Every structure is written in C-alpha cells, then in structure tokens.
C-alpha cells in the first residue's frame, strides 16, 4: 500500500469579489510551516484577471509546496477558452517560481508531489470528499458534482451531489 503525504491545510479559495484579498492575506500569514497545499478555483465568472493572478501569486509567496487548480462548473463558470487562458497563466506563474506540474492541474515544489494523487492516477483505490471528488473503490468510480452552487446547497446529501457512478477503468 502506498503512503500518502499529508498537508497541514488544503484550502479552496472561492475568489469572493470583495473579501478575497483579505481572506488570502490573513490565512496565509497564519501558518508558517512549509507543508501547506492549496486548491485554487479557476474559470469562475466575475473574477478579474488581476484577482486571479493575485491569488496565485499570494500562494507562491508563502510556505505553500503544493497547488491544485480546480475548474469552476455550473452557472458560475467561464467559457472554455477563458478558463484555459486562466489555467495557462497559472501554469506560467507557478513554473516561474519553481513549481513543477506532475499531474494535470497539480503542481508541487520538487520533492513535495502528493503521493495520494500519484497513487490515484496509477489506479489505487481512493476515498475522496468535496467538490468534483472522484472515489474509486471496489471497481466502481463515483464522481461528485462540480457545480459549486449545487454542492453548497446539498453537500450533506450524497445522492444530490453524486453525478455518476460507473465501473472504474482498469490501469495495468
């Protein structure tokens, strides 16, 4: 069995239009360990290019060693081209400060790659929770909604947030 590296905090920043810089600023200064991971939402409407860049850059200025970029879904999402442009910009910013993309939408400082996600990509059984979470157990794969509004409204109701349950693809 593969051991997973655990991070002291993984945070989904929602890019709230008015409070976002304050949330980021205060939280990042509250933890001085070099083991923090972040999940940043990209492709969300009503977020300026400056606001998005600011969030990515703030994460890189702190003791963050792992970043996941999660695409916004549902009525709040940007079109594919605009979302891909944000993802490409985040890739440039992260790469410029020494992060390496080791899986799609996952970056880490060298040596900080998340063994859990590497195992999941290799076909390991995974129990996952949250927005867009994908659980793979006993040959089945269950995926949660990527629509933030639906997830927040029904997060305690498994049936409401599950969008698919299908046989898992085998990796040999």
What does this protein structure show overall?
By secondary structure, the chain is of the alpha/beta class. The chain has 6 helices and 8 strands; from the N terminus they run E-H-E-H-E-H-E-E-H-E-E-H-H-E. It has helices at 20-30, 49-60, 80-96, 115-121, 148-154, 158-161, and strands at 10-13, 36-42, 64-71, 100-103, 106-108, 134-137, 140-144, 162-167. The strands form 2 sheets. It has a 5-stranded mixed β-sheet with strand order 1-2-3-5-4, with helices on both faces. Helix 2 (49-60) links the parallel strand 2 and strand 3 (64-71). The longest helix is centred in the middle third of the chain and has 17 residues, at 80-96. It is globular, with a radius of gyration of 16 Å. The chain starts with 9 loop residues before the first strand and ends in a 5-residue tail after the last strand.
Count of alpha/pi helices: 6
How much strand content do the residues show?
Answer: 15-25%
Task: Please state how the strands of the largest beta sheet are arranged side by side.
Answer: 1-2-3-5-4
What Rg, in angstroms, do the CA atoms define?
16 Å
Shape, per Cα inertia axes: globular
């Amino acid at each position: 069995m593969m051991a997973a590296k655990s991070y002291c905090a993984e945070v989904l920043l929602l890019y709230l239009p008015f409070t976002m810089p304050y949330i980021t600023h205060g939280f990042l200064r509250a933890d001085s360990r070099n083991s923090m991971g972040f999940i940043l939402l990209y492709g969300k409407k009503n977020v300026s290019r400056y606001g998005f860049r600011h969030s990515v850059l703030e994460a890189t200025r702190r003791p963050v060693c792992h970043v996941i970029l999660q695409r916004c879904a549902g009525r709040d999402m940007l079109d594919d081209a605009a979302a891909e442009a944000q993802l490409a910009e985040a890739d440039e910013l992260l790469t410029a400060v020494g992060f390496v993309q080791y899986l799609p939408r996952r970056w880490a400082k060298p040596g900080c790659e998340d063994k859990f996600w590497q195992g999941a990509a290799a076909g390991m059984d995974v129990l996952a929770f949250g927005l867009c979470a994908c659980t793979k157990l006993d040959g089945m794969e269950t995926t949660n909604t990527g629509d933030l509004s639906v997830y927040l409204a029904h997060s305690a109701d498994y049936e409401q947030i599950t969008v698919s349950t299908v046989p898992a693809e085998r990796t040999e």
